[in-house]
Amino acid sequence: MSRRASRPSLPVTIDGEEYLAYEGETILDLARRVGVRIPTLCQLDGLSVFGGCRLCVVQTEGDHRLKPACATEVTGDLEVTTSTHEIREHRRRIVELLFAEGNHICAFCVSTGHCELQDLATEHNVDHIHYDYEYPRNTVDASHPKYLLDRDRCVLCTRCVRVCDEFEGAHVWDIAQRGSESRIVAGLDIPWGESESCTWCGKCVLVCPTGALSFKGRSTGEMVHDPEVIAFLSRARREGEWVGRKEQV
Amino acid sequence: MSTPNGNGNGQPRKLRFATAWLGGCSGCHMSFLDLDELLFDLAEHVEVVFGPLTDVKEFPPDVDIALVEGAVTNDDNVELGRAVRANTRVVVSFGDCAVTGNVTSLRNAMGDPDPMVRRVYVEHPDINGAVPTEVVPALLPQAEPLHELIPVDVYMPGCPPSAERIRNVLFRLVESLEAGQGIPAMDWRTPDDLRFG
Ligand code: SF4
Ligand code: SF4
Ligand code: SF4
Ligand code: FES
Is residue B185 less than 8 Å (CB to CB) from chain A? Predict the structure, then answer.
């Protein structure tokens, strides 16, 4: 948001209230700035936009398609609706599908109580899953000395992929395969512990919204992530907060 | 189905209340017992007609509310689950195993349970190396949530649901059925009533 003009100037309506938006702001940025809650999952402040989970969909006047708020820039005179029955149902279905396509045993998950997916289920009144569970046979990668990847809990949000590439510059992670076969892999599908590019920085673990990435040795409910750390790093980088040290040298 | 109120002699008829234990660890039943002194309040409104705590073998007719714990994982569960549905007005999917399959469904990703059963009963034990065919019911190919077997009216997630959650949901249901109003719309539940795990 360094491109931001000094004053917000674009009139945008959200759920009937009029606000002024900055040029280049996304609908999500604006909504958060003015305190309107739009649920998100793949989006994380500081990371590039992926726009893959579709939890953040909203309706804009004159367009029947739902749009991802995290990936849609505002335009002047935009009228946004963030929460109709249809939108909420759409989001609820997405949450349910995420449960159905993984193996989520919340009761014995390292992240229970600190999980964005579990919270989204509660927020969307998901009291059971209407879809047939897939029960996929996923693999766990425990080869890293410090961290663990349990693909049963992965929602393919790509936060780990992006943070490793954009902040650590290591680009350990990618998504292999397509569709329902998609899965997170280290390097060219090697055990994580054998990756020579992994610096052991732990950023991927901190940003993972679910119990898929954790510190080894954590038991049920003991894995607390810290995704906000990326917004902190991102701001520091943008504002040159750590440049001072260099100048002193 | 009997009427919700009255037994013809002036006394309000108590609701007929049952619990059933399918493929679960009985933790949900333990949590139910954690209602503690509220069990006395509940007993003023319901008569317990079936469950692990009664000595009744057949699921009885005309049950008003049944809490069903556990996933559907073997032949017996199928039979009991169907009997519950056929005889109950309000079936509550009680706890994560019933609602999602939960721990009981961990085996599903491994596919056919036979190799696992053989490993447990044939390859490892020192004596009687044989798969039991009597008393122990046969496993289904997969453990499924209750609603895959029968229509469910109310879902109460949690592993186990806390006594607080059970109180919120159950007492509200009892109140509503006693008032002859059937199942209340589910929007009265708070986020505390709705959480997996
Ligand atoms: S990742 Fe979240 S939703 Fe999945 S099992 Fe763990 S706590 Fe539950
Ligand atoms: S620990 Fe750091 S370097 Fe290693 S995979 Fe995670 S983000 Fe990348
Ligand atoms: S491992 Fe975690 S951060 Fe990475 S894609 Fe899966 S859920 Fe997202
Ligand atoms: S949060 Fe917008 S698409 Fe995922």
Answer: no
